[in-house]
Structure formats: C-alpha cells, structure tokens
Specification:
180 residues, mainly alpha, 2 strands, 3% strand, binds protoporphyrin IX containing FE
C-alpha cells in the first residue's frame, strides 16, 4: 500500500494528526448534533479551536515532508493500486488544508489558544464568515468519509494478511522489517 518506508518523523506526525483530527471531528459533530449543556459545548469549542490552531504548524511540517517525498518519487512506475492509494492520501492532505484554513477564516471572535495567546479574527464580513462556516462543515463531512475509507482499507489489508499497520509502527525495528 505504501510507495516506500515511512521515516520515524512521518510516523509520529501521522499518529499525532490522527489523534487530533479524529477527536475534533467526533467531538465537534457530537456537540453540533446532540443536545448538550451550553457549558459543555463551549468547553469543546474552546479546546478544539485551541488544539487545532496549535496543530497547524505540525500539519504544515507534515505537508512539507509529504511534498518533498512526492518530488523525489517517479509516479509513472507505480501500479494502479498504488496510484489510487497515493491519490487518496493526497486528497486527505488537501481536505485537511481546506478544513484548517476555513476554520480560521470562519472565526467570528478572536482565536483564543488555551487562554495563553489571542489571535485577531481575520475577517469581519458576516456573509463571508458564514460562507466559510458552510465550507468548513462540508469539508469536515468529506474528511470523515475519506478517513472512514482510509481506516476501512487498512482493516481490509490487515484481514488479507497484508500487514500495512506495521509500516506505521512507532517502533523503528518493526517498521524497517516492512519496507518493500
Ligand atoms: C485509527 C486511525 C488510522 C489508522 C489505523 C491509520 C493507518 C494508516 C496506515 C497503516 C498507513 C500506512 C499505509 C501504507 O502502507 O502506506 C497510513 C498512512 C496514511 N494515513 Fe492513516 N491511519 C489512521 C488515521 C488517519 C487520519 C485521521 C489521517 C488524516 C490526516 C490519516 C492520513 C494518512 C496519510 C496521509 C497517510 C499516507 C502516509 C503519510 O503521508 O503520512 N490517517 N495510515
Ligand atoms: C483538523 C482540523 C479541524 C477539524 C477536524 C474541525 C472539525 C470541526 C467540526 C466537526 C465542527 C462542527 C461542525 C458543525 O457545526 O456541524 C467544527 C466547528 C467549528 N470549528 Fe472546526 N475543525 C478544525 C479546525 C478548526 C480551526 C483551525 C478553527 C479555528 C481556529 C476551527 C473553528 C471552528 C469553529 C469556531 C466551529 C463552530 C463551532 C464552535 O464554535 O466550536 N476549526 N469544526
């Protein structure tokens, strides 16, 4: 499923992204769809805005590693299956970028990062803010679908005896045994 072995840095960034994104999607949609006390929804909003803002530089770092890797690759030699995997991974990077950018652009209040730093909201036009909110929600829904497909594909590969999870192991030794 992969086009080469993953570096330790890439693996750590993958699991950090997975934890932040899965938590934010699950808790964000939960408080949006289920009736919860205002205190809880405000707490989730505060944590999620802070967490995802802190996550932005880590994601940019991860994106940089991915782009550098792609530039050193010869895509024409990949099989159809590997091209498809590559396409889905690229789409995940693109949609996460859209989610992060629209999250910042839809802010109708200053971005309060864990009560430590406050960043001014970038836009003030309510119509524009509302438009970015709509794009944020739809891109979050699309990202949820992509992640479901991604995790589903990992499970199918594992069930077929293709040990892809080991390529994303945090243990260097396990990972190096899996390089194709
Ligand atoms: C529990 C959830 C997850 C599991 C079990 C999982 C598992 C994996 C595995 C095993 C690979 C390596 C596939 C290969 O052999 O090439 C991989 C790669 C990848 N995963 Fe996940 N993943 C999860 C969540 C996520 C999430 C939430 C994202 C969204 C950012 C994500 C984005 C990617 C990307 C972009 C790659 C390609 C490698 C890279 O550029 O780092 N994964 N994942
Ligand atoms: C990994 C990145 C992110 C994910 C997965 C994510 C996910 C979500 C989800 C699922 C919702 C609920 C949507 C609904 O109402 O149906 C939401 C709402 C929201 N997001 Fe994001 N988001 C991300 C990044 C950001 C960023 C960077 C910001 C701003 C700095 C932000 C600000 C907001 C705000 C203000 C809301 C409206 C509800 C509230 O006040 O909490 N998001 N987000």
């Amino acid at each position: 499923m992969s086009v080469s072995g993953y570096s330790g840095q890439r693996v750590w960034l993958h699991w950090l992204s997975a934890a932040v994104i899965i938590w934010t999607l699950a808790s964000g949609f939960y408080v949006a769809m289920v009736e919860v006390p205002v205190r809880i929804s405000q707490w989730v909003a505060f944590i999620n805005v802070s967490l995802t803002t802190v996550f932005i530089p880590f994601f940019v770092w991860r994106l940089g590693i991915f782009v550098a890797h792609v530039r050193s690759m010869d895509l024409s030699i990949l099989s159809v299956e590997k091209k498809l995997v590559f396409f889905v991974h690229t789409l995940i990077y693109f949609v996460v970028t859209v989610v992060l950018a629209t999250g910042v652009l839809m802010m109708d209040r200053p971005i309060d990062v864990f009560g430590v730093v406050e960043i001014a909201q970038p836009l003030s036009d309510p119509a524009l803010i509302a438009r970015f909110f709509t794009i944020h929600v739809w891109s979050c829904l699309f990202l949820s679908l992509l992640i479901a497909v991604h995790v589903g594909a990992v499970i199918v590969h594992e069930l077929c005896g293709h040990r892809v999870l080991r390529r994303m192991s945090l243990c260097d030794r396990v990972r190096s045994e899996q390089i194709e």
